[in-house]
Amino acid sequence: MRLSNSQRTFLYQATEEYAKHLHLAEQYLSTRHLSVEEGKKFHLGIVKDPLPGHESYKSRLAIPYITPSGVVDIRFRSVNDNPDEPKYMGIPGAKTTMFNAQAVLTADSYICVTEGELDTIVLSTKTNHPSIGIPGVNNWKPYYGKILDDFETVIVLADGDNPGLEFGKKLSRELTNVNLLQMPEGHDVNSIIIQEGKEWIDERIRKCLGK
User: Fold this and answer.
1) Rounded to whole angstroms, how far apart are CA atoms 65 and 134?
2) Following DSSP, what letter does each residue of 81-120 receive, concatenated?
3) Inside any domain, residue 95
4) Which of 83, 122, 142, 188 is the most buried (most CB within 10 A)?
5) In a domain, 179, yes or no
6) How big is the CA angle at 88 (ends 202 and 70), to the nearest 5 degrees?
7) Which residues contact 16 (CB under 8 A, 6 or more apart)?
8) Cα separation of 86 and 93, whole Å?
């Protein structure tokens, strides 16, 4: 369903409001080896004072989905990993899309695909490789293939688990230009960069590109 102008305005206002309080997530971001300044590049925020309808997202990390046409969605992540509450929450009825979709317009001959927003943020800020995020294999849309088919190489950085393997296999079936780079068992992009350094990812992406 296409967003109305009022819905787009509301999402923009929510993004601006929550971004004012990103400093409250400094401790959480540090566990991801991200600074507040790096988080600001993606307009992350904290829901300190929820806008109407967002009361259930209070104290969560706000992750806006921004496209060339503006903010089209916001996902909300727990920053305390309480097992009694969902890790992620989304706006009811929101249409799932690519995260960091504008990278498709600025990337050159290749683009990286990760399984989630934070992996995309970490990969983009720590390595400068153009990256987009797909929040899980079930959220892949057939038209994404038409968008990514223009690149010489699509590097899929899959998590080191069975869902990650399925994610990589699905994209390999959907696209003819995929180079699958699966993380070691139990790791995702963020955790492997924390453990091994960004050089680990850089070296393997260069190999995928034949450099």
Assistant:
1) 11
2) --TTS-SEEE-TTPPP--BTTTHHHH--SEEEEESSHHHH
3) no
4) 122
5) yes
6) 75
7) none
8) 17
Q: Which domain holds residue 190?
A: 103-208
**pLDDT digits over 148-158, tens only?**
999 999 999 99
Instruction: Give the closest residue to 189 by CA, choosing from 144, 134, 148.
Output: 134
108 with 85, same domain?
no
Tokens of 19: 């971004």
Gap between the terminal Cα atoms of the chain: 43
Same domain as 82, residue 110: no
CA separation for the pair 153, 150 (Å, rounded) = 9
**13 and 70 share a domain?**
yes
Please list, in sequence order, all residues whose beta carbon lies within 8 angstroms of the beta carbon of residue 48, skipping any fewer than 6 positions away.
18, 20, 21, 24, 58, 59
pLDDT in tens, 43-101: 999 999 999 999 999 999 999 999 888 999 999 999 987 888 899 999 998 888 899 99
Residue 32: strand pairing partners = none
List all residues 6 or more positions away from 2 whose beta carbon is below 8 Å from its beta carbon. Answer: none
